[in-house]
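Input (Polyketide synthase):
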Amino acid sequence: MTTTTSGAHREILQQSLQEIRRLRAQLAAHSAPAAVLGAAVRMPAGIEDLHGYWSALRDGVDAVTELLGGTDGRRGPGAGVDPNGRYGGLLSTVDSFDAEFFGISPAEAERMDPQQRLVLEVAWEAIEDAGLTLDTLRTATTGVFIGVYGSDYLMMQVADSSGVNAYTAPGGVHSIVANRLSYVLDLSGPSMAVDTACSSSLMALHLAVRALRDGDCDIALVGGVNTILSPVSTTVTEKVLPLAPRGRCRAFDASAEGIVRAEGCGMVVLTRESFAAAGAQRPRAVIRGTAVNHDGRTNGLTAPSPRAQTDLLRRALRDANAEPDDVVYIESHGTGTPLGDPIEFDAIRTVYGAGSDPCPVGAVKTNFGHQEAAAGIAGLIKAILVLEHDEAPANLHLERVNPEIDLTGTRLLLPQAPTPLADRVGPKLAAVSSFGFGGANVHTILESRPRTPADTETGNPSSARADRGTLILPISARSAPAARALAARYAEQLAEADVATAVEICAAAATRRSHLPVRLCLTGATAEELAQRAGSATVISRPKAAPRQRTLFVFSGQGSQWAEMGRALYAEPVAAAELEACEVVVAERAGWSLRAELLAGPADSRLERTDIAQICIAAVEFALTALWRSWGVAPAAVVGHSMGEVVAAAVAGMLTREQAFDILVRRAVLTEKYARGGAMCAVALPADDVAALLDPDSGVGIAAVNGPRSTVITGPAAAVDTVAAAASARAAEVRRLPVDYAFHSTLLAPCAEEFADQLAAITASTPTIPVYSTVTGQRVSADQLSGQHWARNLVDTVLFAPAVTAALRADSTLTTVLEVGPHPVLIRDLAAVAAAAGRSPALVASLRRGRSAADSLHRSLADLYVDGHDITWNAVLDPPGVRVDLPHYPWVRRRYWLPEHIGKIAHTHPVDGATDVREPSAPAPLGRDAHADRPAQLQALTEFVRERIARALQRPIAEIDESTPIREFGLESLVVVEMKNELEAESGILVPLHKLLEVLDRGSARDLAAVIIGADTERP
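Output:
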């Protein structure tokens, strides 16, 4: 009874302990910090990166200028200024965009709010800064949280209903600012636009942190954006908030007199700390805590509340589990209003004023103005940079502190010059505030990232990390001009790098960047050599690659070996492991050391012996296959030349490693015994022509058919010379092969049956990929690989060209042919065979005689990358040991703006970006008439569809073939919606939308026209 009771008590105790652990884990998750992996900005004064942003803050740049007065989006000289003499912080450009990069048609880009365009570009730059790839974002659950407030562009479109089209709503409403980013990048997490006026972006940050803690997403893209496109919105703002008459934000100054509107966009990439650690990501900072509240009922909707602000700051500290004096920098809301400044500072003094360490209070609005929905994120990113640089920039326009602000007895200071942060042990904390003019308030506590030994190395890792041989730098873009521009940026960065830093740059470019379709891949022995190649790189814009490149592996036979060929592979861990596995098998079956033979120098090499060479070649091919697979290059089909077919069968899963070496060892011994004393010669004639030169009694036969005009003869040496002379007399190129063996000759016939009997017990398994045999010239199955098959493989003609031809014709998706062997001996023949088959795959080798692995394998890897292969770069290069700031993507922008005249269609020419405003083409005779000529109607409708497709793509109508499937033009469904609307307006025909969308996936312009004619509808 007592024992039973004790057992029950133990079980209850264990359950209680498990519940306590669960609750603790849950509590920890709900207060877990969020790591800031990356950030990016677009700020006034032409600032487009974090370096420029910090430089402007450090140097005290005043980015405020006169506001523009027009609504055409143009900036710079001649753009016009606000007629009321108002000021603002303006971006250098808002009317241009790289629509092609994001797969957006010109017609849609014209209707997209510049705020959407800015978010797309700046988000991409933040992702780059974070070192995340699209695959990572898509594999994880990635959310999007964007603060947005203004609607100038939408208001400009709807001012006249004739300017509204199918792109107006998705181009202008707030929700799509976030939703489009999720759509374009194919992200599956929460996606929301946040509008709490001036606190929108920091409110978005708060929601993102909560979503990360709750497990709603693993990664979050968070930001805010604001543009000023119409004088009307400034007039509206002026009616509710005071604009500074002198056009400067004088936060905390005695002469503070109001706000200054500004544009901007900022984005950060957040994740849970555990997620960052798992991916070996080094954050810029950590969000320790956030809090939000509302002012409640004050003496006016836009009036701040001292009580609410004080409570907000304390709640954020509690969420961060931090003490007020842990904070050594505060980025205030700092609007520069006579009412708001003293109230905000009073709350800061109440919460943060006590302590010994000085605490500067800054206001980014003094540099750039009030960026409204982007203000909070601008302040957050500034605070991150302050922690990184350990310095608080000066507040501009601060001449005399507002007399209502009392600094006496506090640790607070308002810097008027760059001020170092307090020197203290451990991470430093900063705080950021953002208040909406409707009373929605946010406060955030962030922590500097922990310092590591690498931080003291100023970006230069140890020389040990740099000792890797050839540098390899992958570069990719969406277009050739962008790829060239990006290569030039890398050239500039590499020109100032030593080899250790170049190693880090290459590693970061390979493992921390998404790999886009237009590519180049550069190799070099030094940073200087790599920089020179990047500076002079030529980029070929290739056709769109297949979704996934597929490769035919071709395994070469004897003749490709060379002394020390294994040395290049023992330096690669994956290849070395495979060679060690082969070492065990070879020692058991052949009785000698594979490693010794692969590393032997020219003086000691025994690779001239067939029984040694064939085994070593096979081992090298096994090792190369393992290495290529680890790098992401796997065979989709295999062909093996002569003895290479044994390796091919094993790679395809038909033979085990042990079975393969059983065959190869016995095969090599027999060849060494029976084939000596012969000769071989390559003849540049078709096999049939060579056969006509042979004397059946001479003992000379055809050893291999390698290509359309590449045939190898074999047999007794004197007889081979006779045939070679006859071929030479017919002006054919002949080349005696450097062997004294007669492979695949009648000399080997006596051993065929013996060989077949020796292999009778070896049975093949079903292949995992197709195997094309050089014995049959066709694809083979497991039941064909009997002892007799391998005897024929030893004695009969090698039907290499027929086997490769069969593979290429059977699978049109084979885009690459990779020769796997110690040295490329088949590339020329492969090119000829592919051409004869009407194919042009990329031809790539593996090792090259006398070259290091870095010099040969990396060059081949570069070729495969450029050809579109998805390389597993983490297996090729070690991840970067320090945070490396790589060049951002060079946007290839064009002007996209609303039509100059409502009802007319603006066409932007791709060459110079000029706008050509044209009247819509006259309506074709599209209406249905019982007496109309149906073929004429069909043709008219077809031309209508072609013209609309051409307009959407901004291409000449001559390029729009009426029989090409519409999906190949890359049109979205909205284009068809717009087409439907125009059709109904111009012809009166009502066509159900679903009918048009159905044909969009499979039909051509003519098919779409036929559907319209056949629609079972009536005139309205």
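Residues 571 and 853 are 8 Å apart (CA to CA).
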